[in-house]
Automatic annotation (TrEMBL):
This is Helix-turn-helix domain-containing protein. One of its GO terms (molecular function) is DNA binding. SUPFAM superfamilies: Putative DNA-binding domain (SSF46955). Coiled coil: none annotated. Gene3D superfamilies: 1.10.1660.10. It comes from Paenibacillus oryzae. It holds the Pfam family HTH_17.
Amino acid sequence: MADLFTVDQLAQMLDMHPRTIRRYIREEQLKASKVGGEWRIRKEDAEMFIGSKLDEIKSDAMDDIQAFIEGKDSVVEGQLQVCTMLDCYVDTEEAVHISEIIMRHMNQPDPSRGKAKMQYFFDDNEQKGRYIIWGTPAFIGKVLSAVGEAVKK
C-alpha cells in the first residue's frame, strides 16, 4: 500500500486542501481510483501530477519561505520557529521514501511538533527531492535525524 496515497496524504504533501485534490481528480488532471469508497492515487500518478505542477509548487513554496523570512503568515506557533529546506539528490523512488519518512513524523501525535507544515516536490531535471519543513526546533531536529538515519542505510 506504500505505492498508494490517500487524498489527505497527497494534499498534506502538497500543502493543498483535500477538496483541491478531489477537484483535480474530478477534472481528470490527476489520475485516481476508488478503493473501498475512497480515492487512492498511485505514486506514479502523483509524481506525474507533481511534475506538471512543479513550477506552481515551486513558486508557492518560495512565497511561503519569503513570508517566513519577513515574519508574515507564520504557520508555526510558539516562541521558537524553524523553516528548513532539505535538498536530496536521489532518484524518484528514494525521494518518495524520504517524503514518507517526513509524513510519518507529520502525522504522529507529538507535543513537540506543534503546528507544522511540509512541502515536497521532485525536480526530474536536477534529480533532486526538495523538502521544505516548518515547525519547532525540536520537531525539525527529529525529522532531519530520521531522514539522515534512513539515508545512511
